[in-house]
Amino acid sequence: xxxxxxxxxxxxxxxxxxxxxxxxxxxxxxxxxxxxxxxxxxxxxxxxxxxxxxxxxxxxxxxxxxxxxxxxxxxxxxxxxxxxxxxxxxxxxxxxxxxxxxxxxxxxxxxxxxxxxxxxxxxxxxxxxxxxxxxxxxxxxxxxxxxxxxxxxxxxxxxxxxxxxxxxxxxxxxxxxxxxxxxxxxxxxxxxxxxxxxxxxxxxxxxxxxxxxxxxxxxxxxxxxxxxxxxxxxxxxxxxxxxxxxxxxxxxxxxxxxxxxxxxxxxxxxxxxxxxxxxxxxxxxxxxxxxxxxxxxxxxxxxxxxxxxxxxxxxxxxxxxxxxxxxxxxxxxxxxxxxxxxxxxxxxxxxxxxxxxxxxxxxxxxxxxxxxxxxxxxxxxxxxxxxxxxxxxxxxxxxxxxxxxxxxxxxxxxxxxxxxxxxxxxxxxx
Amino acid sequence: xxxxxxxxxxxxxxxxxxxxxxxxxxxxxxxxxxxxxxxxxxxxxxxxxxxxxxxxxxxxxxxxxxxxxxxxxxxxxxxxxxxxxxxxxxxxxxxxxxxxxxxxxxxxxxxxxxxxxxxxxxxxxxxxxxxxxxxxxxxxxxxxxxxxxxxxxxxxxx
Lengths: 430, 158
Prior knowledge:
Radius of gyration of chain A: 22 Å
CATH topology of the largest domain in chain A: Aspartate Aminotransferase, domain 2
CATH architecture of the largest domain in chain A: 3-Layer(aba) Sandwich
Number of strands of chain B: 4
Number of strands of chain A: 17
Helix content of chain B: 40-55%
Radius of gyration of chain B: 15 Å
Structural class of chain B: alpha+beta
Shape of chain B: globular
Order of helices and strands of chain B: HHEEEHHHHE
Structural class of chain A: alpha/beta
Strand content of chain A: 15-25%
Number of helices of chain A: 14
Distance between the termini of chain A: 63 Å
Strand content of chain B: 15-25%
CATH superfamily of the largest domain in chain A: Type I PLP-dependent aspartate aminotransferase-like (Major domain)
CATH class of chain B: Alpha Beta
Distance between the termini of chain B: 32 Å
Strand order of the largest sheet of chain B: 3-2-1-4
Shape of chain A: globular
CATH topology of chain B: Sufe protein. Chain: A
Number of helices of chain B: 6
Oligomer: heterodimer
CATH architecture of chain B: Alpha-Beta Complex
Largest sheet of chain B: 4 strands, mixed
Number of domains of chain A: 2
Largest interface: A-B, 22 and 23 residues
Number of domains of chain B: 1
């Protein structure tokens, strides 16, 4: 498919452009909540208060209906048939790729590879780029607050190739300091792999500076954007990221679809990750020639309907405006931080200067799992545990935290309900 | 659900006995002379405890203690278990485990096999049966007991 730059029907409002946008100035959360059918229910006799969007976000009707419509009208396998449905499905799938390109402001749609999720995207880079380019003694730099998905694939390379995995420490507040990144970089560093936003603490990392430092050293930079893309506008060209990965399901889209952005010049030198159908140019029993990226990395029938759902999710958040969503969530975070700070024996874990809508906390005398159970009986969904970031928990001297995370549909009333239920929790375990 | 119904629902899980043992665990120490020891770990929630037993040649558990960290339910369960084990034969310990396991998982527990006092304490732990995600918290210590009695070093209840 050729590169197309269609006139966008969607309003990508930036701060300055806001008044040019047809979307209402006021963030009408009650209006947006109606888009999410799942929110209108009772849990244990209480209205559902969903504060677990960092684990997975709920889905608006627009996504559910786009997927249903596609399956009812246009579904077939892609890149194969000569028949009408295959053509329509291929167009929809490739249009979804274009939607992702525009969303990330990538230069060309060949830089967008669909994966199952962010985890698979990182594994793809490790298996393909890593095995081809790394040798014994090379270093990969990560931070202490990474999700297991951005630790374990590199450890596998360490076992296999004998690379060194270096870890930038995190301050007790949950910040990653630029000077610590500088100190950990060396001429041996070949890749800096870091989260954009910490899933456990909400810290927003200074990735633009980190990427620039990586490039000065001659290393590439991979950014795990799983927590970021739903909370802020992401521009991979402005960041100058070499790889950027995210999952659809945290962006109000379906699970089973994720994205690997990679600079084309890097991707085209990378060998296939998995092999099979749809990723080959020609196969004889003597030799197989692989397609160009991104198809080289998409072996087998992909998650076609989910790609359509992801595009619908991107259209949905883009229509509202990511800057407006970010502002709404920042207000919620400030409100919740203030509320929770006034609860005796509660301690907020992670107080970085730059934070997204995530509050991790502990409570004296109450284990996070007990907090989670009590809140659940109040209809409140939070996450309790190590958040797939055990090294970070150990670093902070904790085994687990409770975590409330916000999405575009959350309200200050819900935070009041959370605070009241936490007071109740405190009474039980005091 | 009204506030009082909510309270009674939660109190079914967090009974005074559980809260007390969760907050002030008994036998919370290392047993240097232990001849059986096992580590129990639930990787899903990070609960981790080491169980120490001193079992006599006559098959009677002379002493039991534990250390570790976990939620109120898992700590209370370990604490209450170590209290109950002292002076019991291995066979009696197995009966306690069978009774708890049955009542936590909603099976018909054979009430005849254990004493009424034991039954009361195990029933307090069995409050988890209405909280499927928490059953493993209540049974972690008891699975660790199985491992210790079999001389296995480590048990996981993921």
